[in-house]
Amino acid sequence: MSKTETDTSPGGAEGRDEDLGAAGSQLSTAPREETTVAPGLGVIGWVRWFWRQLTSMRVALLLLLLLSLGAIPGSLIPQTGADLNKVDEFRKAHGTLAPVYDKLGLFHVYSSVWFSAIYILLFVSLIGCIVPRTWQFVGQLRGRPPGAPKRLTRLPAYTTWRTTAEPEQVREAALALLRRRRFRAHVAGDAVAAEKGYVRELGNLAFHIALIVLLVAFASGQLYKSDGTKLMVEGDGFSNALPMYDDFKSGSLFRNDELVPFSFDLKDFRATYEVSGPNRGTPRTFEARIKYSEGAYGKEKPATVKVNKPLEIGDSKVYLVSHGYAPVITVRDGRGKVVYHDAVPLLPLDGNVTSNGVIKVMDGYRDARGHKDQLGFQAFFVPTFDPKSGTMLSQFPSLVNPLLAVNAYHGDLGVDAGQSQNVYQLDTQHMKAFKDAKGQLLKKLLRPGDTLQLPNGAGSLTFDKDVKEWAGFEIVQEPGSGWALGGALAAIFGLAASLFIQRRRVWVRAVRGADGVTVVEMGGLGRSESAKVPEELGEIAGILYDQAPGAPDPDDVHESTVVPAEGAEK
Question: Which residue, of 40, 48, 149, 291, has the fewest CB within 10 Å?
Answer without folding.
Answer: 40
